[in-house]
Description:
This protein is an alpha+beta fold. The protein folds into three domains: 11-227, no CATH class; 244-350, no CATH class; 428-562, Heat Shock Protein 90 (2-Layer Sandwich), CATH 3.30.565.10. Helix content is 59%, strand content 12%. It has helices at 11-14, 16-31, 38-41, 43-54, 66-81, 85-103, 109-134, 145-151, 156-161, 177-201, 205-227, 236-246, 251-264, 268-278, 326-387, 392-418, 430-440, 459-480, 509-513, 529-540, and strands at residues 285-292, 295-300, 306-311, 314-320, 427-429, 447-449, 456-458, 485-492, 495-502, 542-550, 553-560. The strands form three sheets. A five-stranded mixed β-sheet has the order 6-8-9-11-10, with helices on one face. The chain has a four-stranded antiparallel β-sheet with strand order 2-1-4-3, with helices on one face. Strands 5-7 form a two-stranded antiparallel sheet. A hairpin with a 2-residue loop joins strand 1 and strand 2.
Amino acid sequence: MNTEISSAVPWWSRRPHFLLAGHLLLLHALAFGGWRLPAVRILWFVAFGLFLLWQPFVAGERRMSRRQGAVVLAAALASTWLLSPWLMLIWCGALAAVIGGRVLWTGDRLERAGYLFAFGYLVCLTIFGIVPEISPSAVLDPLPRDAIARYMPFLLAALIAFPAHPQRRRAGDAFDLFYGMLVFLALAVFVLGALAVTFVSGVSYVEALAQTSLAIAAALLVLAWAWNPRGGFSGLGSALSRYLLSVGLPLEQWLIQLAETSERESHPVRFLAAITEQLQRVPWVVGCRWQAGSESGRFGGTSPHTQEYRRDGVLLAVCFRHVPSPAMRWHVEWLLRLATEFYLVKFQTHELQRMSYLQAVYETGARVTHDVKNLLQSLQTLCYAAAQPGDPEAVARLLARQLPQIAERLKSTLDKLQRPRADDNRNTSAAEWWARLRDRHSGDAIEWNDPAGEAEVPSALFDSIAENLLQNALTKRQHEGGIEISVKLTVDRNSPMLTVRDTGQAIAASVADSLFRTPVQSAHGLGIGLYHAARQADETGYRLDLAENRPGSVVFTLAPRT
């Protein structure tokens, strides 16, 4: 043997080919006339026991209960009493199916050859020994049947020489039922076909065997070609696989139903309810139920045969009309998995839409809050100027110029609350906008570098960013002192660029790296002004940059994006 087995394992488990050879030897003695003799008929009882030890379904060393033992003993005695060529013919067909079903699960090439040799011996035993016992017309002349009966058992010595592994009796490893049924049917067609050719054509039994063999070989050759053709189209194997996997509900149809329902229902819960209702059209389903979070639903009836699929808070359950097979359970699990995937995608899309809306509300609120803060600072500056002693007419003129601009900016800010995504992109003359900006900050000691040339600027964008940059610079001046602030509007090829510069301390490197990408920590504000200013500029086609950042020169620029 080619594997080391513990001595505690029974010898018949270590040498299963010995058991098979002994069973075939006893069948040989019974097939060639021995079934007529009572003294030889009793060998069937021994052959039945050897088969029970060899069979690949239940472990041979397993203990049986008294009831099981009584059933096996009764079956052995009844088959011994009723033993006949017809019973042996059926038994040989079943044994051939078991041997054929074992071939596919054998990895060793020599061991597979041993099973094929045993299968060939069993076929020869059937056509040379059992069939002539059934039909008197099945005469082997010119083949010597007595010589075959006498010398054919010596071939079983070759079966003992083949290697064999201990039987694996795990579920799925012992026997291929589908392949075994095909072997049984092929052997039945071969035997019955040979008898039919003998009776119909009037030829000898040996000639009928030859003709039937050639006909079956040709049919198997055509079937093998049709099963997996090489002409670029799928064969019977592909069609059978699709049928077995569909189980009454083809996967393509289910995908079409999923796609159509997904297009009809955008809400994830309504989609899940609609798609589970589609399962009621399947004949082997009596009802189904679903649950997604706090939502749930049920369609049809209930049954004790239920299959459930759970994932990420989603439960889908299908109630079967009858007990489902493992293949059907596997298929239904994939159907439920696909439906759940579609639901989760829709749920995530719904959540993204909700988060997008909340983000729009948040960004609009943050931007409006920052604009209101800038307007409040402008009002505080006006109030401070009005409280100072001086010419009342000059104060009145200042208020007359500033209050309408503040009112217009406040109205534009409030409009953003009603239209979160609709910014004011109206363009204004650069000279006019520049004049209004200088007028609003006429008392803030800022150096103004007037623009040269004509251009138009988006007034809402330039107002918001200019006020933001100037208020930051003025707040910086209050805390550091002695800072000079300069503002410049450059018009180059009809492309305006705003530059705000201060001579204060440089911005910390950790803050400068994320200045325009995320909100930052601020000791004197909300820390979101430049973040929202940069996003507003990007949405309008401009770019806000920190052009220079060193002690004595901190420069921000707003220019069209190239």
